[in-house]
Design brief:
Its EC number is 3.5.4.16. The chain is α+β, with helices and mostly antiparallel strands. It has a single domain, classed as Alpha-Beta Plaits. The chain contains 2 helices and 4 strands; from the N terminus they run βαββαβ. It has a 4-stranded antiparallel beta sheet with strand order 2-3-1-4, covered by helices on one side.
């Protein structure tokens, strides 16, 4: 079992969650579409070679984003990460997977 944590702007919050739910994440027993989310502030500075969704190269940017957490079975890891990357608007998706025991 893994815990997936990712950061996403509010404009894409629901569509990204739906994509990873469709890939099998967020299921706990007889419940589906389970997650925890909180709004916060992220920051980044795109390099000259970047193609940012928000901001511009060389300029420090601060944005409101959501941190979203959900669980997934180990065998779904590749499909869920693929769904996350394909549905997310950012060029570089900030996420991490944590192996957990339940």
């Amino acid at each position: 079992m893994y815990s997936l944590v990712f950061y996403v702007p509010e404009t894409h919050l629901e569509s990204v969650k739906e994509a990873v739910f469709a890939a099998g994440a967020g299921r706990i027993g007889e419940y589906e579409a389970c997650c925890w989310q909180v709004k916060g502030h992220g920051q980044f500075r795109p390099s000259a070679a970047a193609n940012p969704f928000i901001g511009e190269a060389g300029k420090l940017e601060q944005v409101e984003e959501y941190r979203v957490e959900m669980v997934l079975l180990s065998e779904l890891k590749e499909a869920v990460v693929s769904a996350l990357k394909h549905s997310h608007p950012y060029e570089e998706v900030a996420y991490h997977l944590i192996q957990v025991e339940c």
